Amino acid sequence: MKTAAAPLPSSNPAGIAAWLMLGIAWLCFLIPFPGLGMFLGWPLNMVAFILAVVAMAKGGAGKGIAQLLLSLVVSPLVYLVGVVVFAGAVSAISQPALDGKAPADKSSHQDIAIAPVAPVEITARQLYRDYEANEVAADVLYKGKRLLISGGVAAIQTDLLDEPQVLLKAGSVEQVMISGLSREAAGALSKGDAVLAACTGNGMIQGAPVTRDCELQ
């Protein structure tokens, strides 16, 4: 009498797909491109989470528990590393390239007074509109330049390094980021306050104009 063959272990396509989605999501988090992690990485991470739940439902907890835990615990850490790397790259690019310049001969220019360059006066709304219209042209006008930005406070928060950040309203949902304020200056503000901030333009990150070295006037 013939005996029935033992059934082969079933494959786990949902679990394999979850690993694939996690890998692609982490790659999106680490690539220093504005918005890639937020708008592509996190949706893929959510897909990986759902696939892990499906794998557990079909094959038991051991079939998808690793992918589920990684999507909940490790993915935020990978995203944080990507944000820090991106912020460092932006900061390095925005610094003035002074290393290749020869030091000025101070002895021959002691009696020459250098007139300070007047800051560019602009509203937060206009700064946002200029960057929205043409980021390259706006960088020429504002990046690395001293700006005098006026606008209303939309939010007061801290960045990943626990440094104060103030967001100025530039439209119904549009905002301009003010960075570099002291904790005392930022702590004295409230939503809706009209402010005038002297800042250095620092380009555009994830769809919003950003600044550095700001002081309230």
Order of helices and strands: HHHEHHEEEHEE
Q: How would you classify the helix and strand content by structural class?
A: alpha+beta
CATH class of the largest domain: Mainly Beta
Largest sheet descriptor: 6 strands, mixed
CATH topology of the largest domain: OB fold (Dihydrolipoamide Acetyltransferase, E2P)
Strand fraction: 15-25%
Question: What's the average pLDDT?
Answer: 83
Instruction: Describe the global form.
Output: elongated
Account of the protein in words:
With 217 residues, this protein is of the alpha+beta class. The protein folds into two domains: 13-94, no CATH class; 118-216, Nucleic acid-binding proteins (OB fold (Dihydrolipoamide Acetyltransferase, E2P)), CATH 2.40.50. 44% of the residues lie in helices and 23% in strands. The protein is built from six helices and six strands; from the N terminus they run αααβααβββαββ. Strands 1, 2, 3, 4, 5 and 6 form a six-stranded mixed sheet that branches. A hairpin with a 5-residue loop joins β3 and β4 (175-179). α1 runs antiparallel to α2 and α1 (13-30) packs parallel to α3 (65-94). It starts with 12 loop residues before the first helix and ends with a strand. Mean pLDDT is 83; it is low at 3-9.
